[in-house]
Amino acid sequence: MNLYCKSILLLLFLQLATRAVSAQNDPQFSQYFLNQSVFNPGYNGLDNALSATAQFRSQWMGIEGHPFIQDISVHSPVPLLHGGLGILLLNEEEGVLRNTFVSAGYAYHIRTNAGTFSIGVSGGAVQSSLDGSKLRAPDGNYIDGINHNDDILPGVMVSGIGPDFAAGIFFAGRKFTAGISANHLIPVDIKLDGTNSNLSMIFARQYYLQVAYFAPLGNTISIRPSLMVKSNGSYLQGEGDVVLTYNNFLWFGAGFRGYSNQTLDAIIGTVGIRIGENLRLGYSYDYTTSSLNSVSNGSHEVVINYRVNLIKPAKPGKIIYTPRF
Questions:
Q1: CA angle 46, 48, 50 (to 5 degrees)
Q2: Pairing mode, if any, of strands 266-275 and 279-288?
Q3: What pLDDT digit, counting tens, does each position of 51-77 carry?
Q4: What are φ and ψ of residue 318, in 5° steps?
Q5: How far apart are CA 203 and CA 26, in angstroms?
Q6: What is the pTM of this model?
Q7: Torsion angle, CA of 40/105/110/226, rounded to 10 degrees?
Q8: Is the dihedral of CA 245, 246, 251, 253 positive or negative?
Q9: What 3-state DSSP class applies to 35?
Q10: Label partner for 143 (CA 20 to 30 A): which of 17, 111, 119, 122?
């Protein structure tokens, strides 16, 4: 096979790899119920506290270059704005690819007897980069430096940046919650600097539907079944979870991601603990059920959430007894 054909094949591989990033419904989190503002800006402020979350996920362990995802989100109700504000920083590394998202969002809250309706938007930027020094072409020369012998493939780190927007609606009742949202509201095609224009990162619009129900089973135990459905318009993925909570202190649960032979992904186990009034720690393990299970050791995820109640309940006023006439 000549150099031209090999270059085309390698370029197609890179394009498929970049498209796979946009087709996987954004980074996957198993404990999304502890950090829902990542998927839906309409959730900003609905924890009724200053809520800060750090989330770390190592996906498909055992595969070289497997995805590693980190995010930090902070959101809080702002009564003067009749809603909530939030910020998000998310980083995703996958082989030679890296995507970093930064955004700020606002949600308008409408309080009713049934619960709180929230309408949210967010805007920011996404930066994509590719480390060409880690690529190896079939006819490249790597003895005295990086030389792919290809005009298309970069030999250094290249990157590009583009705008990113999201919108969502969320309802939070006493027992029932539901949300629908869209990330990458305006699809983005980021050209990587210094390379052929065909080498780019494509972020298609992503849709999310979240539904959950909180059911007390007594004074100390409660159960929360939930469902998340994700789609990019071409592919659909679903996940169902059930979490059991004891005394609002300890929770554990299980879930399943996939609904057909083509979408099978993982069986999920989750455990978490609440420390004091403010700190929550969660851990989940995904057992891979797709064809990757022959090379993957599963996925690990850790969540740390800290909440500070900024709106203190009003103290009863001093009682003054007055004579009646």
A1: 100
A2: antiparallel
A3: 999 999 999 998 888 899 999 999 999
A4: -70, 135
A5: 9
A6: 0.83
A7: 20
A8: negative
A9: coil
A10: 17
